[in-house]
Amino acid sequence: MSQQPQSALSLAPIVYIVDDDNGMCTSLAWLLESVGVKSAGFAKASEFLSAFDPDVPACLVLDVRMPEQSGFDVQAELNRQGATLPIIFVSGHGDIPMSVRALQNGAIDFVEKPYNSQQMLDRVQRALKLASQRHAADQKQRELRKRLASLTAREKEVLRGVIDGKGSKRIASDLSISVKTVDVHRASIKDKLGAASIAMLVRDVMAVWDQEAAASGTNA
């Protein structure tokens, strides 16, 4: 079995392998190690879910049929947590409905056992590239959420006006403050959020609000 996940501080990508077939799990770990890819293997879904670190870029090679919790159970739990790691399902008894279900629920690939070693490496490399992209986007959104939390109540009101496409005069009228005060707040918002422009500010904030609305099932 491969080594356990490293510290999140290094942020080196990792491949999680969840398969109750110890031989398959170990074989894939050795294959990945041969090309310098770190991995962590688990025979039980519960062990993986306990060890999974969402702060480290990673992908998951996940067996469909396992005792206690199936691969689909694991996928559902990760979706519930809002995890974004790419999932490659593997199965020795796969069929079209099974693969469709996996992909519809967010998996990026479905591979039948026994799989070709080089093809699996190619799939994992693509998954890790996607994982790094998603991780960078997640980090950016987490940082923006922290910055949004630093805004004053009045700055948040002004920001909402900006997001709604209102000019300073309209925002000033809505909030019963001067245009100059609105412009001061706009400059402060731009500085606190680290936005290069109002257009970028609107785009980034809307992305965060849309994600939060989707998670809560409400409108932003």
UniProtKB/TrEMBL annotation:
Pfam families: GerE (PF00196), Response_reg (PF00072). CDD domains: LuxR_C_like, REC_FixJ. One of its GO terms (biological process) is phosphorelay signal transduction system. Residues 144-209 form the HTH luxR-type domain. Residues 14-128 form the Response regulatory domain. GO terms for molecular function: DNA binding. Gene3D superfamilies: 3.40.50.2300, Winged helix-like DNA-binding domain superfamily/Winged helix DNA-binding domain. InterPro entries: CheY-like_superfamily, Sig_transdc_resp-reg_C-effctor, Sig_transdc_resp-reg_receiver, Tscrpt_reg_LuxR_C, WH-like_DNA-bd_sf. The modification 4-aspartylphosphate is found at residue 63. SUPFAM superfamilies: C-terminal effector domain of the bipartite response regulators, CheY-like. It comes from the Bacteria. Keywords: DNA-binding, Phosphoprotein, Transcription, Transcription regulation, Two-component regulatory system. PANTHER family: DNA-BINDING TRANSCRIPTIONAL ACTIVATOR DEVR_DOSR. This is Response regulator.
